[in-house]
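ok so i was messing around last nite and threw this chain in just to see what happens. nothing serious, just curious
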Amino acid sequence: MRQLIFLFIIFSFAACDSTPKKKSGSSSKRVSPKSEKSESFKLEMTDREQPATLLPAREKMVSLLSEQHYFKLEKYLEHPDEPVDSLLFYFSKAIVHSSFAQYKEANKAIDLFLAMNKTQNDVESELNLMGLKAANYMKLFDYKRAADTYKTIADKYSDRLGANGTAGYREAYRRNNTLAGVPPLSVTIPQNAKIQTLRSSLNQWMVMVNANNQDSVPLLFNMSAGTSVMSESAAKRLKATIFAETFPVGEQDYVRVAVIPVMKLDDVVFKNVVVMVVQDDLLASHDGSPETEGTLGFPEIQALSYIKIDKRTGVLDVASPAKRTDKNMMFTWSQQMVVMLNDSLLLALDAGGRRSGLSVNYYQKNKTSIDLTGKSLRIKDERVGKDFAGYEIKNFPIKIGAAQSLLPAISVYAEPVLYGNEFDGALGQDVISQYDYMVMDFKNMRFALGRN
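result:
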């Protein structure tokens, strides 16, 4: 139970789920049956009469949206070869920009959509993009505008959201409004800066942070954490301002938010770091390493812009990256990182997973060849403790940018599992461990593996 509570804390400060929801009691139809195979993207632009000349482009954009192949969609939007539906065009631009961490550009596209939608009244799509806009403000650390947007959603769309949905957005408003006067996060990274990591007793990455070079605090380095979390005693040692407001977690526990004015990570200096503050006894009981006092989460890690992780030395190179055009990494609605392999396959990055695997989505696209050459077997999904029908493929090639390798064997699910069906599979340690270093370039949205 404590483990579940801790995981909820990790993600509870993220925005309310802005994933488009199915309309309740609406007569609108899905724009494409292909959207059924996507679990996290349920686009339902309202059907409306359109000239026949717009239908080919609409079908193309909706197909790429439902497949979440934003690399192809971005290229198509740059040079569409048919007349386009302007409303769907800006909807698509907003999704693409957000997926590639271009949050300001995404919100500009959302504003254009909202202005045009005043005559179309596509309420469902408007609600979806308003949720995305609020989430983008959070990623820009603009808490005041995030709060205002969440309040607008709760006030304007309460009939459509229902009581529980409205309450969720009002809680998101309350959290962000608490931080309305906090300046955005800033990071100062000296030239050739490096960060030394340590290994915990459970072999997890740790970093040491401090305020004014005193009272170092060990934190897990966790890119899966939606926000940074810290024990109350650790936050006080880092001179945090802890707000009085409490936010419920579960039936009995609660968290508070805090701001650390200055936090140092070796030579890197963060300012205005927002963290969730947890009661010491609650944090101590989660299943992480006992010597840590919290987690350095994804917002601060992404703010570094570039991380090159040397697995042998544990050193993080955070030098400013040069501009590149070979992007192969994107975010989903839920901030899952997805990497493009072999110039077309989309695999969710599961750096903590032991084995890579291919999904039922990949199987359906390659069914004939897999049925002929694959070895039929039952695949044990350790996440849910169940077996699923699948195949084993021998000598599967993996190409990530310039890095190429060959997996002796990889499993393919032949039926849907509880989650993870929407992409072609997941990239795990059996591929990553073949290399000496891993690069996460958030400025150029590039993932790379290499050897020294």
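not much to say yet. The chain has three domains: 2-178, 186-317, 329-450.
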